[in-house]
Amino acid sequence: MEKLTIDATVENLETVTEFISSSLEEKDCSIKIIMQMELVIEEIFVNVASYAYRPNVGKVTICREFEDSPRSIKITFIDGGAAFNPLEKEDPDINAELEERDIGGLGIFLVKKNVDDISYERKDGKNILAIKKLF
Predict the structure, then answer these.
(1) Which residues sit opposite 79 in a β-bridge?
(2) SS3 category, 28
(3) What is the pTM of this model?
(4) Buried b (16+ CB within 10 A) or exposed e, 106-125
(5) C-alpha closest to that of 113 among 83, 84, 92
(6) Measured between alpha carbons, how far is residue 40 from residues 35, 43, 55, 99 in Å?
(7) What does the CA dihedral 117, 123, 126, 130 come to, rounded to 10 degrees?
(8) Helix (H) or strand (E) holding 36
(9) Contacts of 54 (CB under 8 A, 6+ apart)
(10) Could you report the per-residue pLDDT of 18-57, keeping only the tens digit for each?
(11) Edge-to-edge strands, sheet with 117-123
(12) Which of 1, 65, 87, 123 is most buried per CB count within 10 Å?
């Protein structure tokens, strides 16, 4: 497992994306998988950067680990910000008229649709969101 600990600021998104994308490229992942993961990383990291420590800045640790059977990547986001379980939010009704839809929730919906497994736990004052993608 490799870890990256960085300030949870939107300006660091590129560093986080590169941390994941470069390792996926090394594993000969398809461009489709890499793009899906970049979308997922952006949604999760920007949410942590925007809301976890507001109005202050805190740290986030991103852990990446690969498994061979089946081939997959597991990415875990750990922050010490305000408790927030994004999985508790109900999926938006994407078939509803635009005017009838609630604001928010589309990002985590996209994350769920682009990964094979997602879990959340609050442990020792930390948010721990883990995603897994088969490739």
Answers:
(1) 60, 127
(2) coil
(3) 0.90
(4) ebbbebeebbeebeeeeeee
(5) 92
(6) 9, 5, 24, 26
(7) -10
(8) helix 31-47
(9) 82
(10) 999 999 999 999 999 999 999 999 999 999 999 999 999 9
(11) 2-7, 59-68, 71-79, 126-134, 117-123
(12) 65
